[in-house]
Design brief:
Strand content: over 45%
Number of strands: 13
Number of helices: 1
Oligomer: single chain
Length: 120
Amino acid sequence: MANQAKQNENDNVVNSIIGEGSEFKGEFKINGLLRIDGNFRGTIETSGKVLIGRNGQAMTDIKARLVVVGGTVKGNIFASERVIFLSTGKIIGNIITPSLVMEDGVSFEGSCTINRKALS
């Protein structure tokens, strides 16, 4: 129970930001939260959370515990806990996750596998 509370607390601490107007290309490995409001091209791996803001654009494969998409993702998402698509989100790619939440208005081209087993 304490471990879950610590994990939820860490979800709100931004470790890294790719700000609006910024571009980053490469491999991003972090512990914690990555927020993308600019342009990212590469791969992302974290045991935490990835948040693609409304103006964020990512051409990437994402491996994370939790992924929230409000912008555009071109690539695949592998989430061990959940993927959340906000109404402004757009994805072109595939998703594998045990839990998926989509608001009205999402644009999604690809396939989705709901896999209740934990991803490693």
